[in-house]
protein disulfide-isomerase
Amino acid sequence: MQLSFFLFFTPGIRKHITSMKLLFLLLCFFFSLSLAKDGKVEKGSKVKKHKPPKIKEENDVLVLTDSNFARALKDNKYLLVKFYIALSGPSQTVKEEFSIAAGSMKKDSSEIRFGQVDITQEKELGKEFKIKEFPTIKLFVDGDRKNPTDCKGVRTASAFVTWLNRRMGPSSLYINSTDQYEAFVMSDKVTVVGFFKEPENKKEHFLEAAKDIPDFPFGLISNNDIFSHAGITTNMVAVYKKDSPTNYLIPEEEIESKVDLVKLIRTYIMDVVTEYNLETQVTIFDVPVDSHILLFTSKTSQLFGTIYENFESAALEFRGKLVFILVDTDESRNGRIFEYFRITEVDTPAVRILNLTTDVKYRMPADEVSFENLRRFCRSYLDGKAKPKKESEEIPKDWDKNPVKLLVGKNFNHVAFNKTTNTFIMFYAPWSQECKDLFPIWEELGMTYQNHKNVTIAKIDCAANDIQLMVLDRYPYFRFFPAGSSTQSIRYTGERTLSAFKEYLEYELESRNTEKEDKETSATRNTENEEKDDEKTAKEEL
C-alpha cells in the first residue's frame, strides 16, 4: 500500500522525497552520536544511586510508618514491632522496657531490630494487622508481612530478649550431667525441665512451649543417669520451684499439644492459691485458664485459717481447670476488684467465679465456705449448670431522651450490642469524684454526636447494675461496642478529654466503614463472578 502510494507521484517529486528522507536519516544519526557522547561515563567515575532516607529511631526503636514499613521488613531479618497508642497506660508501661531490650539486641545482633507504629497516626497499618489491643507486639521474620508471630504476655526487657533468642536458637538448654542438672534447677526461682527419651513429637511440644514462656529457664534431658538421679522413670515435664518442697510433674499422657503444655506449665508456676495484689494482678492473667474462682475474706479474721484450708483443698482438686485467687478484704488497694464484683464488708467471706471469655460472673449459692460447698460450686460450674449472677435497676422512662443515654442491666445488651449502632459507654460509680468531674465532658461528647445516625453515647451506674464485662479498671472506665457484633467490646485507654474521646471515636468509625466497604466490594465481585458462571453454564447447556 505504501509503495503504491509512493509511485503515484511524478519522478521529480519522488526524487525530492527521497532526498528529504536521506537528510532526515543523517540528522538522526548525528543526534544519536551526540547523545552517546554526552551520556558517556568517564573512566574512574561512579554512577550515583539514589538512597532512601534513613528510618528515624527513638531510643534504638525504629519509627515505622506506612511509607517505610515495607522497607523495614526488607532490611531486617527479624523485626519486632510494637503497635501502640501514645496515650494508652499499658503502652506507656511497656515503652521503657521495649527500648531497653531494643538497645540490647541492637548491640548483640545486627539481624534483630525493634520498631514501633503509632496507630493514631498510621491508621492503615492498624487496619491491615487488625490491631484492637494496645500495645500489640508482633514479630516479622524474613520480610513476611502476612504471617507475623504474636508476642503475648511479655513485659520486661529481659523477657523480650529471651523470647527472641528462643526463636532464633535453641529454646532449651541441653543438660548432660547430674552436676549440671543440680545447678540448673537452683538457677532461678522457677525452672522447667523436660525428661524425654522418645517420642520426638512430645519433645517438640516442649521445645515449642519454651518459646512462649520466656520468664523462666527451660532444660532438656535424655541421659539415663540423670533420669535415675532425679527419680524419673518415664517421659514427663517437671516444674521446680526453689522456695517450695513440692515439684510438679506433668506426665506425657497430658501433653497432647504445645497449647496444653503451656497451660499446665503456667498453672504450676503459680501457687496453688494466688493472693491478688499489685505484683500478681498482671501475672494471674498469663495463665491460659479462662475460669477464675475468687475468695474474698479478711486475713485477720478468726475463721481465716479454716476458710483458707478449705479453699486450698478445693484448689488442689480442680487445679488446671480453675485458677484459685485469694482477695484480702483488709487491703485497701484491692478497692477496684471489690467494686467490680460489688463486694462489701457485709458480704464477706464471699466466693465468686469469673469466666474471662464470656465475662460472666457466678456467685456461690451458699454462705459457708466449706470444702463441700466449694467442690459442689466448682463441679456445677464446670458442668455448665451454675446460674450466672445478674442484677439491674428498672429502665428509666426517659432513658433515651437526652444526648447521653441512660443504661441499666435490663437494656444494656440491647443498646451495646446493636446491629446498626456503634455505642461508646462510660461505666461509672456514683460516689466517685473523678466520675462526677467527667460527666460534663461526657455530656459534651453526647451533644456532638446526638444527630449522628449510627453513634450512641451512653453511661451506666456499675454499682447498681451488674454488667457481664471483664473490666478491672478504676472507675470510670470506657468501652466501644462496634455495630453488628453480639460479643465484641474494645477497651478505651486514652486521655479523658473531649478531643481525645472524639479522636478515638472517629478512628473506630473510620475503621468500621473501611471494613464494611471491603466486604461490600468482595460481595459485589462474588456476585459478578456468579453471574458470569451462570451465563457460561447457560451457553454450555444451549
User: Anything to note?
Assistant: Residues 498-541 form the longest helix (44 residues). Residues 57-167 form a domain with the Glutaredoxin fold (CATH 3.40.30.10). The two ends are 44 Å apart (CA to CA).
